[in-house]
Each structure stands twice: as structure tokens, then as C-alpha cells.
Amino acid sequence: MSARRLLPRPDPSLLVLSSLAGGPKHGYALMKDVEAFAQVTLGPGTVFGCLARLEERGLVEALEAVDRRHPYMLTAAGALALSEQLSELERVTEAGSRRLGAMWGLLRDGPDRAQT
Question: Considering its fold, how many domains does the chain have in total?
Fold first, then answer.
């Protein structure tokens, strides 16, 4: 974690489910998609371990292999779980952003002079 980063990166399960919400993908395509939309690099061990756990929970489903590639798709239960997680994150993000906006005016050093 960098000195600037307060919290760890998003959970790999959230990233994988978010990627699969865009349609079925095999592991490599999933890694590239996550890198593109979240600027997070997930290694193969992380992705395939995550897919195995999500499949055990019924949140993703393995599809028939195509040319040695094993695509996965989101299940209805996975879509519901993702929706619930995103709603929770959205509530926190909205409240934090609203409160931060009100706080900037009260800070002596203001947002332009805040430590980076």
C-alpha cells in the first residue's frame, strides 16, 4: 500500500463480479478488463482462486471451454450479490463525498494545499 493510499485496493471478488457483469470472460480477458476499468492488476493465482470461490458459492458459472479457454459468467445470485455490494459502496461514497465537500471550506489549508 502506498503512503497516499489509506485503504487497500477493492476486493478481487468485487472486481471479478464487476467484470463478469459485462459478459462472460475467460481468465486472461478478465484480468485485462479489471486492469482497464479499475487500474488494478490481478495475477492468475488471484483470479482463478477467486473464480473457484465464487463458483463454489454459486455466484459465477463455468461455461464450456473454447480453444483451451475456460470462460465464466455471472449467475443471477452473483448479479444480486454484486448489486448489493455496489449499493453499499455507493451509500458510503455518496455520504463521504457530501461530507468532504462541506468540510473543504472549513479547512485552513484547503483542498489545494492538502498533502499529496
Answer: 1
